[in-house]
Structure prediction request, 402 residues.
Amino acid sequence: MTGDYADLSSALRSAYDFGSDYPHPRLLAAISAEIAKGQERRATGWFFAGAAAAVLAVLIVTGFLLIPHSSQPVQRVATPSPSFPSNLPPGVCVPTAEQLADPNATRIEAKLVTRETLSTTDPNFHQGWPPAIKYFWVVAEVGVFSFDNIPRPPLPTPSTPKPFHFVLSYLQGNDDNAPDPEWVAHPCRAIGVTANNGAWPAWFDQMESLADVKIR
Amino acid sequence: MRVCLRIRYERLIEGPSEQELIRRAKAGDKLAYEELLQPNLKPAARLARVLLGDPSEAEDAVQEASVKAWRKLGNLRTGSSFQPWFLGIVVRQVRTIQRGSWWSVIRVPSLPSAAPPTDRPWLEGEDLRRAVRRLSAGQREVVAMHFYLDMRIEDVAASLRLSVAAVKSRINRALRELRTALAEGS
Prediction:
């Protein structure tokens, strides 16, 4: 089969030519350190497991006795922006001002879209987002961003810390009923980001939305 | 005696065989494991990056898979090759990341863009990457392993714990999709 499709192999290698410096030359050193750490952990693990269990037991008992019990539900800390429309579909969250106030952005727009619209319009739509998420807030930003100020979970410093000019953030628009305690604190939880040095994409402007908010 | 010396000389030049490295790594020799890992890091990272899109996430996936492979080295059957087994672990790590709710695609620097349409047999550049992104996860895996990393179908099957027939079927379906994308000029 390979012989018949040599052209496809060559087209793929050209399309995914990551250069000779990928992956980072220190990747093996990082793996080696991680393995060594694991070996140390195993050696000392049994001792610390016993000690930790004892400390945990004391803390649980003390905490149960000292902390006052409250039956009040946890308040959502969202601070709705006044510029958001009030007629959003039921159950849809409103992003907090903090989620939309990136000081590095010169232009920010947010759109509330259905899953169906996003999946057929956005070339980067991620199939792994739980199907129960029916609405997404997509926030487009233009500016000069570095890896550090892109909203994402903590990850090691990238090997190519170049600036980005365009960032799309994806916020969960409705509760997906997953057992996620973070939802209570952050109803419009960030669930993804794409960043590149391209221009503002035409598909974003053309995307059919339920709410279109120009923040800056 | 001469034969014996010759074998020893060849071993000196070529270094220990893969099976010897696997045996030593299984016995806890970290350096032997690193020697096994080193030539496989580049294909692993490239495979993960094709599947995930994000260079940092791909490196994280390979790092995590490498540590898992070290822990599970005992599961590698005697006589089996290291690469298909290891790349299988990388693919499963990629799937774990893809199943997670967090998704990021950081693109730096710009990759080559699509060439002007010609009578090319396949899409190229960004057009091809977009068409590959639209394949199902399973199709993307077999295309990346077979056509991008040049792995034999038997090795792809071993990596993904599929039958050879199942891999061929996925490849055929993926090729149909890619041809359709070419016809649509996507």
